[in-house]
């Protein structure tokens, strides 16, 4: 019969419940709304009675001192404190005026009368037997960076891994992730983009066959077990608290992470106090670079692609009034020629468009060239399948919005941007898009054309930055 130690040499009959591993494994490190768990409500209530959960109000209300005696709200899930994002409403459940948080509304409504649950029960034993099964070889630069990242972990400091597109960033993370897992740490790789989660998950699963890892994104299928490695969108980190011993933010410069302070707070909240963060990016912002220097982070810079070839430099081509021409039902001449050449050479291609609207107008025109050409955008439920089709050479090319600017690796892909002068294509987006080209050692170069209606500063900046990287890589090689 189970007993519980109350005081030394003094036992009482333990009336607790036998903890179901799936409940424990799910809740550890999470902060979750009480009424909306994947388990029966009665069960959760029982665990609560036995103090297996701590609880927090969904929204904390503080009264600021002063004559106005104003209320200040804070969302305990997303840590949003922007007062204009809190909305008062007449709550049918409480018969009172309650408040909800608009900031994290797309993950389900958090109100002042919602309870958030945090696991307070026993933790599972973490495995320390992990294995890295990877037969690739590092270049000197990669190997140095991988080592520097481990050094930062040993010293418990943050790290910036600044690496050009195609430097093999993911592989560079493997040794550090293995180091952390073997210490029994819980590791999270977070990225602003669902596509990047989808790309990274199978790669990590393959090389860490003995590790339980889960991928988390909107509407992701649920997996069993306690994951010691989590690959998630940064949004999903709203649902974690004090969970991770090491967080890697991949593509740390990508929208919306850079613009959304609450997402950055979500990363901080999801990790344990004092746990190190590593930022991985090809295009760090001036702000990140300044913070890195100020706070004395570890730093690795890889200016060369893993195969040693330079980055393809974008070619700028005017494509005057492309918008009108496409709307009139024609593909502008230069773009038509470019696409026909790709089709003739049987080279897979991506054509980026600034808006879904323009892309949708263009799809039927391109399908007249080859009816297998498809289009993809953020809300497309088949986007995963379409990218796979391009990779498997089942379709010749894909029209896309900026959602495919990162994380996509397709052998011998040729890339064009239509409307490169549009605001959405800032220099970091253009560098990322250019970085899709020439990633494979067998096809280290390729076409990257920026079709435009007038050259912008951002286009110039992207081009100069890529040229600078190439010079830098050459300089480092010559040393
Ligand atoms: Zn919120």
TrEMBL record:
One of the GO biological process terms: DNA replication initiation
GO MF assignments: 3'-5' DNA helicase activity; ATP binding; DNA binding
The Helicase C-terminal domain, residue ranges: 335-479
Alphabetical list of Pfam families matching this protein: DEAD, Helicase_C
Keyword Secreted appears in the UniProt entry: no
UniProt domain Helicase ATP-binding: residue ranges: 150-302
SMART domains found in the cross-reference section: DEXDc, HELICc
Keywords for this protein: ATP-binding, DNA-binding, Helicase, Hydrolase, Nucleotide-binding
PANTHER family: COMF OPERON PROTEIN 1 (PTHR30580:SF1), PRIMOSOMAL PROTEIN N (PTHR30580)
Protein name: DEAD/DEAH box helicase
């Amino acid at each position: 019969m189970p007993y519980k130690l109350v005081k030394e040499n003094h036992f009482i009959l333990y009336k607790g419940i036998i903890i179901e591993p799936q409940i424990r494994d799910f809740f550890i490190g999470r902060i979750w709304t009480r009424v909306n768990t994947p388990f029966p409500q009665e069960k959760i209530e029982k665990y609560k009675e036995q103090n297996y959960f701590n609880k927090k109000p969904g929204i904390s209300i503080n009264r600021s001192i002063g004559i106005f005696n104003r209320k200040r709200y804070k969302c305990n899930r997303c840590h949003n404190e922007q007062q204009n994002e809190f909305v008062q409403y007449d709550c049918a459940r409480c018969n009172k005026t309650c408040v909800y948080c608009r900031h994290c509304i797309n993950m389900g409504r958090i109100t002042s009368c919602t309870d958030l649950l945090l696991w307070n029960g026993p933790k599972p034993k973490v495995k320390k037997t992990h294995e890295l099964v990877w037969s690739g070889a590092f270049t000197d630069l990669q190997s140095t960076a991988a080592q520097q990242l481990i050094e930062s972990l040993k010293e418990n400091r943050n790290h910036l891994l600044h690496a050009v597109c195609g430097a093999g960033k993911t592989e560079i993370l493997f040794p550090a992730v293995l180091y952390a897992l073997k210490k029994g740490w819980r590791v999270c790789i977070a990225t602003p983009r669902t596509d990047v989660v989808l790309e990274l998950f199978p790669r990590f699963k393959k090389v860490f066959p003995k590790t339980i890892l889960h991928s988390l994104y909107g509407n992701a299928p649920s997996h069993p077990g306690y994951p010691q490695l989590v690959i998630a969108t940064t949004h999903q980190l709203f649902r974690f608290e004090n969970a991770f011993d090491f967080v890697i933010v991949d593509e740390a410069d990508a929208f919306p992470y850079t613009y959304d302070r609450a997402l950055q707070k979500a990363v901080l909240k999801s990790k344990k106090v004092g746990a190190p963060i590593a930022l991985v990016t090809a295009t760090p912002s001036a702000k990140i670079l300044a913070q890195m220097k100020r706070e004395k982070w570890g730093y690795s810079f890889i200016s060369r692609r893993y195969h040693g070839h330079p980055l393809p430099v974008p070619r700028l081509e005017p494509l005057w009034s492309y918008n009108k021409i496409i709307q009139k039902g024609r593909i502008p001449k230069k773009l038509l020629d470019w696409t026909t050449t790709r089709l003739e050479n049987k080279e897979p291609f991506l054509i980026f468009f600034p808006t879904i609207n323009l892309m949708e107008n263009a799809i039927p025109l391109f399908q007249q060239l080859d009816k297998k050409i498809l289009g993809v955008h953020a809300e497309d439920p088949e986007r995963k399948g379409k990218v796979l089709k391009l990779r498997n050479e089942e379709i010749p090319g894909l029209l896309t919005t900026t959602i495919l600017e990162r994380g996509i690796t397709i052998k011998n892909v040729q890339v064009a941007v239509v409307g490169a002068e549009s605001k959405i294509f800032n220099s970091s987006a253009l560098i990322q898009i250019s970085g899709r080209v020439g990633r494979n050692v067998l096809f280290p170069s390729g076409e990257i054309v920026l079709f435009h209606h007038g050259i912008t500063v951002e286009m110039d900046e992207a081009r100069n930055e890529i040229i600078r990287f190439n010079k830098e890589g050459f300089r480092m090689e010559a040393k």
